[in-house]
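Holo model, heme C. Inputs:
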Amino acid sequence: MTDTPGHEPGGPELEPEQRLPATRPPAEVAPVERFTSPPSIRAVELTPERAAQVVRQSSNARWIGFLAVVVVILFVALYWFYELGAPLGLTEPRLQAEITAQQITMVERGYNVYQANCARCHGKQGEGGIGPVLNKQDKLFSHLNENYIRNVLTVGGRYVCGDPKSLMPVWADTGKPPGPLNYRQIDELVAFLLANNDQTFIVRDEHLLDPKKDPITGQVLTFTGWRDPNYKPDAGATPYPDCWKSEFSSGSSASPAAAASTDPNAKVVTVTAQNIAFTTTTVTAPAGAAFTLSFDNEDASIPHDVQIKDASGAQVFKTDVFPGVAKRDYPVPALKAGSYPFACTVHPNMTGTLTVQ
Ligand code: HEC
Ligand SMILES: [Cu+2]
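Output:
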């Protein structure tokens, strides 16, 4: 038995043509439109035009690649020099320039803080007045260092000589009691006090930071720092004393002897110091005769002296520096007629005039 379709079991054997499925008419191929690429594409060989184009394009591509690499290299090189400074010191490294700019800003702001708060006692140029001189090179060299300035401004004037009645108040708002200046202003003051005198800075408006101009000439106002960066103390010089008053105290032990040797018959010229000023700003003495200078210091525990100069600025006489309240007499040798300015060396804004006639 077989499973051949159309084959009846036990029936007659059928011819193959008669089996199912029935034969179909031969299929006709449908004529169909095809999309074809142009012959140039299908051609295995490049046409001469195409070959030339390929050459041109790859040359262009190489150029573009080359230029891109050049641009990147130039950028890296320029940025390198911009960041780290051009060779031969042509330009400053960027960060260094930034630091310099910031330091200049600090000094210029510190100048304003100083003029507003400190100049009335220490002088506009740090030349001294009620407070000690600040612009002397031997003092700026190491005595007035950043740490010291910060301490003085935080603790107040008593930090300097241990004088609890010091005239200098606490300035930093971190002090006890707190002072009026914040940490930025203290930083700016430090930058200003330590600025070099070979650098010129611009006076700026406190708030707008615009340069200030001279109202008459229209020129921008400038200032320089105080510190000479090339200053070297003399060989064998002693460091600046911790307490500025010690600078003036040398030789004061001679005073009792000086007081004893005054001529009782000589004319007495009295100079009085009170509240860090001479109350006797004009005094007269006889010409050509020795006289007695009686110096009366009425300021308790504040040192003063009297330094007499001639018209040329040369010192002709100087008393000791001594703290008040005290009075000492000094014999002054005969002077020629003329006008002699006198001042206190501790407080340069204490001045007066001695007229010899
Ligand atoms: C009221 C006057 C006065 C004012 C204002 C003043 N000072 Fe002073 N300053 C003094 C006196 C006085 C001393 C000396 C301290 C002492 O020995 O008692 C002194 C001492 C100093 C010293 C130490 C000087 C040294 O030789 O060791 C520094 C630094 C100083 N002042 C900075 C400043 C600064 C900065 C300002 C402004 C914020 C300022 N002072 C404002 C009066 C003043
Ligand atoms: Cu004085």
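Residues 251-257 have pLDDT under 50 and may be disordered. Residues 251-356 form a domain with the Immunoglobulin-like fold (CATH 2.60.40.420).
Archived with the compound record.
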